[in-house]
Amino acid sequence: MLQTRGLKHLGKNLIQQARGKGGPRYRCPSFRFHGKVKHFIGDGIVEDIIKDPGHSAPLLKIASGGKQHLIIAPEGIRVGQSVQSGPDAELKTGNTLPMKNIPEGTNIFNIESSPGDGGRFVRSSGGTAKVLSHHKDKVTVMLPSKKPRVFQAECKATVGLIAGSGRKEKPFLKAGKRHHYMKARNKLYPKVCGTSMNAIDHPFGGASSHSKGHPMTVSRNAPPGRKVGRIAARRTGKKR
């Protein structure tokens, strides 16, 4: 005879398992996004300044060569203004150039990680980086975190400071406001640590304390639902 008494105490899926399975809670609402933001080549005119739920910064609709492009809006841009992108572009706010053509001390954003990828670094509202120095085929840039990073000289970047710098000054005030903001960006909220959960929800949960109760190192072959913590750690203990 099948024993059913303990079935209600079976554990739940971990968050990473629930996200991997898919579902409306963890699915990205990309149908509401306006499109991909990346660098273009040529001259264009700013047609409109729009708000995209997938980006914290305002975006620019650029008309260039009969096509429409989306780029991140710098501070001080206006509708009807012309922008340029390419090695021959003028050094002014909103224009995109290879970093080998941008002098030291210039504020830049939307920096390419490798030439032609459309921009990967410094894309959130209010962000800006600064060109520190040029080498043979490398350029050193100070990121918003104050950390220097070396890029290839052919990588493109846009001159200026990203608009929307006052976004963080307005508090959310309510958890519901934060929930809807995070949901629009496909971010998980709230984030709860495993030690704060019940024992049924997480291997580190329970025991009414924040101590994990057992080592965090776990085997590479651990079953789903237990594979959390330091998975197949090469070494453990304090680094000396």
Can you describe this structure?
- By secondary structure, the chain is mainly β.
- It has a domain at about 30-165: SH3 type barrels (Roll), CATH 2.30.30.30.
- About 5% of the residues lie in helices and about 25% in strands.
- The protein is built from 2 helices and 12 strands, in the order αββββββββββαββ.
- Strands 5-10-6-7-8-9 form a 6-stranded antiparallel beta sheet, with no helix packed on it.
- β8 (about 140) and β9 form a beta hairpin.
- It is globular, with a radius of gyration of 24 Å.
- The model has no long low-confidence stretch (mean pLDDT about 90).
Which short descriptors sum up this protein?
240 residues; mainly beta; SH3 type barrels; six-stranded antiparallel beta sheet; four-stranded antiparallel beta sheet; 2 helices; 12 strands; 7% helix; globular
Summarize model confidence as the mean pLDDT. Answer: 90
| Rg from alpha-carbon coordinates | 24 Å
Helix/strand-derived class? mainly beta
**Helix amount, in percent?**
under 10%
How do the strands line up in the largest sheet?
5-10-6-7-8-9
Beta-strand proportion: 15-25%
> What is the CA-CA span between the terminal residues?
57 Å
Count helical runs: 2
What string, H for helix and E for strand, traces the elements in order?
Answer: HEEEEEEEEEEHEE
